[in-house]
Automatic annotation (TrEMBL):
<feature type="domain" description="Formyl transferase N-terminal">
    <location>
        <begin position="1"/>
        <end position="174"/>
    </location>
</feature>
<comment type="pathway">
    <text>Purine metabolism; IMP biosynthesis via de novo pathway; N(2)-formyl-N(1)-(5-phospho-D-ribosyl)glycinamide from N(1)-(5-phospho-D-ribosyl)glycinamide (10-formyl THF route): step 1/1.</text>
</comment>
<keyword id="KW-0808">Transferase</keyword>
<keyword id="KW-0658">Purine biosynthesis</keyword>
<dbReference type="GO" id="GO:0004644">
    <property type="term" value="F:phosphoribosylglycinamide formyltransferase activity"/>
</dbReference>
<feature type="site" description="Raises pKa of active site His">
    <location>
        <position position="139"/>
    </location>
</feature>
<comment type="similarity">
    <text>Belongs to the GART family.</text>
</comment>
<comment type="function">
    <text>Catalyzes the transfer of a formyl group from 10-formyltetrahydrofolate to 5-phospho-ribosyl-glycinamide (GAR), producing 5-phospho-ribosyl-N-formylglycinamide (FGAR) and tetrahydrofolate.</text>
</comment>
<feature type="binding site">
    <location>
        <position position="101"/>
    </location>
    <ligand>
        <name>(6R)-10-formyltetrahydrofolate</name>
    </ligand>
</feature>
<dbReference type="GO" id="GO:0006189">
    <property type="term" value="P:'de novo' IMP biosynthetic process"/>
</dbReference>
<dbReference type="Pfam" id="PF00551">
    <property type="entry name" value="Formyl_trans_N"/>
</dbReference>
<feature type="active site" description="Proton donor">
    <location>
        <position position="103"/>
    </location>
</feature>
<feature type="binding site">
    <location>
        <begin position="11"/>
        <end position="13"/>
    </location>
    <ligand>
        <name>N(1)-(5-phospho-beta-D-ribosyl)glycinamide</name>
    </ligand>
</feature>
<dbReference type="GO" id="GO:0005829">
    <property type="term" value="C:cytosol"/>
</dbReference>
<dbReference type="InterPro" id="IPR002376">
    <property type="entry name" value="Formyl_transf_N"/>
</dbReference>
<feature type="binding site">
    <location>
        <begin position="84"/>
        <end position="87"/>
    </location>
    <ligand>
        <name>(6R)-10-formyltetrahydrofolate</name>
    </ligand>
</feature>
<feature type="binding site">
    <location>
        <position position="59"/>
    </location>
    <ligand>
        <name>(6R)-10-formyltetrahydrofolate</name>
    </ligand>
</feature>
């Protein structure tokens, strides 16, 4: 199975997946040309591509370029890992049933929120991690795995536990998908 990871930020989930599946992870795409994830991929000698939505006339053109990129690299599975764009109909149609996402809350709590980690911690509810299929909604796809987390009074400590849990859960889910 050939995997592409989409990331917009530091890429810690990307790195965990790439280290767990070095033969399968073939590509890192970022919509942020200065994302640290790109440096992680280069260190791991994984192909990188980065372009922004602003460099295209519209989201459909942007997603058509993504579909072409995925086809060029013969990608079977797309793992969203801190990718902060909503997947639109063009990409979703081309890769339906082949895109998964990790979300930093125990869905359905804080679905669609770009600040789910902080919001769940402040509310002391919905604490956890969810890996799910991507569908036409926002964080509404079929859940593949979830893990609840205990509250920690220090946000930095909670965030550390969450990231460790994300890495473990995402690896477990991808491993199961590879076996199928």
């Amino acid at each position: 199975m050939r995997i592409a990871v989409f990331a917009s930020g530091s890429g810690s989930n990307f790195e965990a997946l790439a280290q767990a599946f070095p033969a399968e992870v073939q590509l890192l795409f970022s919509d942020k040309i200065d994302a640290f994830a790109l440096q992680r991929a280069q260190q791991l000698k994984i192909a990188t591509v980065s372009f922004t939505l602003k460099s295209f006339a519209d989201k459909q053109s942007y997603e058509e370029a993504l579909v072409a990129l995925l086809r060029e690299h013969q990608i079977d599975l797309v793992c969203l890992a801190g990718y902060m764009k909503i997947v639109g109909p063009t990409l979703l149609h081309a890769y339906e049933g082949r895109i998964i996402n990790i979300h930093p809350s125990y869905l359905p709590a804080f679905a669609g929120s770009a600040h789910a980690l902080e919001e769940s911690w402040q509310a002391q509810e919905g604490l956890g991690i969810t890996v799910h299929w991507v569908d036409s909604g926002v964080d509404t796809g079929k859940i593949l795995a979830q893990q609840q987390l205990d509250y920690h009074p220090e946000l930095a400590e909670y965030e550390k536990k969450l990231h460790q849990g994300e890495h473990e859960l995402y690896i477990k889910v991808v491993e199961e998908l590879i076996k199928k």
